[in-house]
Design goal:
Mean pLDDT: 90
CATH architecture: 2-Layer Sandwich
CATH class: Alpha Beta
CATH topology: Alpha-Beta Plaits
Number of strands: 6
Strand content: 25-35%
Distance between the termini: 11 Å
Structural class: alpha+beta
Number of domains: 1
């Protein structure tokens, strides 16, 4: 079992979600977040003053999958999120030791669903 965290551009969310759906990956948590990477933010001009931007809007996807779904999940995120520009995002894959479905008490692979 793996826990996949992806940080992507907000305008790529729809495409990523569509690609995940095509690969039958339905259980996704999405959060609007702020962050920065190599872009170091975007400077803006407000009332003739240049303000250094430090954080950019991003979307964070969190997906718990069984091992057979890891590659299709990663492929869907990459295919849907890639523009080829700096700031496309990152994907983190973590081992998942335990999953418990609260409603039924199921654990492990059964709890992921």
């Amino acid at each position: 079992m793996k826990y996949i965290i992806a940080v992507i551009q907000p305008d790529r969310l729809e495409e990523v979600m569509q690609r995940l759906e095509e690969k039958e990956i339905h259980l996704v948590t999405v959060t609007s977040v702020m962050g920065r990477g190599r872009q170091r933010g975007v400077a803006t001009v407000y009332r003739s003053h240049k303000e250094a931007g430090t954080l950019l809007k991003k979307m964070k996807l969190e997906i718990a999958v069984n091992d057979t779904y890891v590659k299709p999940t990663l492929d869907a995120i990459i295919e849907g999120g890639r523009t080829g520009q700096v700031g496309d995002g990152k994907i983190f894959v973590l081992s998942l030791d335990e999953v418990i479905r609260i409603r039924t008490g199921e654990t492990g692979n059964l709890a992921i669903g």
